[in-house]
Design brief:
single chain, 9 helices
């Protein structure tokens, strides 16, 4: 991984209704890494992803991407197109699977990538479903379509918000495999928000614990799980934390 951070956050504060829900003193995210962000509900994990995808902006502090300061409502389209998010609840169009996978490319006016689209559909086990209406899919199938729609864009950064919550083991395994391959083969930077500490352990190079909007600890995965420095991290990974 490159030593120059892809994202730099310093003294970032994000509030809703005058209540600070995110207070990040310092966070660097490096090109080509998988960073898992864990923590209880309401810790600020999804808010962090929205800042990283330039959907929202901090009230104070500095957010940089590729060394470029991101100003409120002023993230250039060229940068926005480098970052793609797969949300926990996939919002699919009322059309078939293939048209959903192609949707982002059509919006960007990118044509002639049918071979690549088909390869992504096959990679995610969607070939038998390609002409099936999206509204008839199971939760796991819909989430695979959402992931296919994201990765066919060849993102520099893939943001995943609880991508396998409430899915069966087959869909969890397939999604995790594709994410790991995308990172390994294309160098895609992945930020994964998850409640599942086992998933974080399987996929991530580094893990961060977010509590009350603040990063309690961030470390390489083995260190995070086996030798945490903060007692709250130790309690969380052992399942002893009550929240």
């Amino acid at each position: 991984m490159s030593s120059a951070p892809l994202y730099e956050l310093r003294q970032v504060v994000k509030s809703y209704d005058a209540r600070a829900v995110l207070k990040v003193v310092a966070l660097d995210i490096h090109p080509g890494e998988i960073l898992a962000v864990v923590g209880p509900s309401g810790a600020g994990k999804s808010t962090l992803l929205r800042l990283l995808n330039f959907l929202e902006f901090p009230e104070s502090g500095a957010l940089k991407y590729r060394g470029q300061p991101i100003q409120p409502d002023a993230a250039p389209l060229s940068l926005r197109r480098e970052v793609t998010t797969v949300f926990q609840r996939s919002a699919l169009l009322s059309t078939n699977v293939r048209r959903n996978v192609e949707y982002g490319l059509r919006l960007r006016g990118e044509r002639g990538r049918q071979v690549e689209i088909q390869a992504v559909i096959e990679r995610l086990g969607l070939t038998p479903l390609a002409h099936k209406p999206a509204q008839t899919l199971s939760g796991g199938e819909a989430q695979r379509v959402a992931l296919a729609r994201a990765i066919v864009l060849r993102p520099t950064v893939l943001l995943l918000d609880e991508p396998t919550a409430n899915l069966d083991p087959y869909n969890v395994g397939l999604i995790e495999t594709v994410v790991a391959e995308l990172n390994r083969e294309q160098g895609c930077t992945v930020v994964l928000v998850t409640h599942n500490v086992f998933q974080a352990h399987r996929l991530a190079h580094r893990v961060a614990l977010l509590l009350g909007g603040s990063i309690v600890e961030i470390a390489e995965t083995q260190t995070f799980f086996e030798s945490p420095h903060d007692p709250r991290t130790s309690a969380f990974v052992k399942g002893e934390m009550v929240y």
